[in-house]
Amino acid sequence: MRNQNMQGRISSIRIEITGEQQDILNSWLRKSTTPVGLAKRARAI
């Protein structure tokens, strides 16, 4: 059963990233100068 708190499509795509890549994405989310579209993509991953 799907978690009721999740939004969006169900996908079987799996993305594997390294710890360093995760740190970069998280730093983009913390910066106030990161463009909104880029931050949304970083959050999605």
Please write out the topology.
Elements (H helix, E strand, L loop, with lengths): L18 H12 L5 H9 L1
Elements, N to C (H/E): HH
Rounded mean pLDDT score: 80
* Helical amount: 40-55%
Count the helices. How many?
2
- Portion in beta strands: under 5%
Major sheet description: none
Sum up the overall morphology in one term.
flat
Secondary structure class reads mainly alpha
Are there runs of 5+ residues with pLDDT below 50, and where? none
Q: State the oligomer.
A: single chain
First-last Cα distance: 22 Å
Give an account of the 3D structure.
The chain has a domain at 16-45. The two termini are 22 Å apart. The radius of gyration is 13 Å and the shape is flat. It is 47% helix and 0% strand. With 45 residues, the protein is mainly alpha-helical.
Key terms:
single chain, 45 residues, mainly alpha, flat
Short description:
With 45 residues, the protein is mainly alpha-helical. It has two helices and no strands.
